[in-house]
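step=predict obj=Hypoxanthine phosphoribosyltransferase n=184
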Amino acid sequence: MPSNVTGVIQDLERVLLSPEQIAARVAEMAARLNVELAGRVVTVVALMDGGLFFVADLLRKLEMPVRLHTLSASSYQGGTATTGEVKVNWPATLNLHGQDVLLLDDILDTGLTLGAITERILEQEPASLRTCVLLSKRRPRLREVVADAGFEIDDEFVVGYGMDFRGRFRNLPCIGILNLDPAS
Ligand SMILES: O=P(O)(O)OC[C@H]1O[C@H](OP(=O)(O)OP(=O)(O)O)[C@H](O)[C@@H]1O
């Protein structure tokens, strides 16, 4: 793993998705949700920090009334592999009983994060639960998760548009593959 990444676009091996490609797909996802959830009041549960830009961009395109709850869910601790332990700050006052919940996250990888959050949400007996992610990796899951995905991507570590490596790269407007030197 490189010790010298600075977190700028020059550190990328290549750009996977440009800001324009991301914006076009997010608009399509929002248009579909606007049809399928029309007439409902939607309770969004948005996972931070990685989901920050996806959630901000998608929500501004939703036309139904929305309530927003942000949760901090982390298990990678800045690295490229899950620690296996999903830490969630679930507010004691959060009650999703009877609500139409839309769960949003940036990326579905092992499935551990969304699996853990889905379990917590379902314990509260929402009226419905729908999950959307911007990216879904083509890889075997450690936990099965049902989610609509903006893009299916190969099993490579990605950064940008909210996603980090060692706390950096979140601010890149594109999504890219890191130049990881296996020897370093
Ligand atoms: O499917 P999984 O293997 O669980 O991986 C997906 C999760 O990993 C990342 O979160 P991370 O733990 O890096 O925290 P962050 O959102 O604060 O960056 C990402 O934002 C997802 O929530």
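step=describe
Strands lie at 12-17, 42-48, 66-74, 87-88, 100-108, 128-137, 148-153, 158-159, 175-178.
step=end
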